[in-house]
Amino acid sequence: MQAYVLAVSLLLMTVVAGAFWWAVRHSTWVVRHGADVQLHSSGHVESYRTGLFWALVVLGVAVAVATLRPWPYDASASEDSVIVTAMGGQWSWEIAPQQVPVGRPIVFKVTSSDVNHGFGVYEPDGTMLFQTQAMPGYVNQVRYTFTKPGKYRVLCMEYCGLVHHDMVEEIEVR
Ligand code: CUA
Predict the structure, then answer these.
(1) 135 Cβ inside 6 Å of ligand 1
(2) What residue segments make up the domains of the chain, in order of their start?
(3) pTM here?
(4) 83-114, pLDDT tens digit by residue?
């Protein structure tokens, strides 16, 4: 499924890049043959555009790499990772084990026994760390390495009925 999504994403990105490329070629034609002939004759406009284009490409790649590298949704389990299963149900969580070690990658396998829930993990001070959907019939994986010991809270992040607000559980990191 992941490979399929990647292939579709790459295909669509190629189509979008092709459209941009066509627009760049077309606008160059307008500069050459349209009202900007005088400006273009110096060659400054075109070299400025080319420079701007490649600067934006480099900036885009840099921003994408920098922001996607710490992406917390890498679900691949390594040898030293700890598996935690989490099952949501109206209106409580079944999490096992509830005590996990600090500094080791934890792979959360999240699912639901009834309706959609949201599996959100919060720091002791209430800052949200990561979340994924708890869906019936699917197991969503999210990997996270806790760097500080403490009592972390799991809150349901999707309205799932009358007692949604009470779907609170605890994970102890030590
Ligand atoms: Cu479960 Cu909201």
Answers:
(1) no
(2) 2-26+38-68, 82-173
(3) 0.58
(4) 999 999 999 999 999 999 999 999 999 999 99
**How remote is the CA of residue 168 from the centroid of ligand 1, in Å?**
9
Res 24: pLDDT: 82
SS3 of 96-115: the string is ECCEECCCCEEEEEEEECCC
- Does ligand 1 have an atom closer than 6 angstroms to the CB of 167? yes
Closest CA to 145 of 100, 99, 112: 100
Burial of 174 (0-12, 13-18, 19+ CB in 10 A): exposed
CATH domain 82-173 topology: Immunoglobulin-like (2.60.40)
Ligand 1 centroid to Cα of residue 118, in Å, is 6
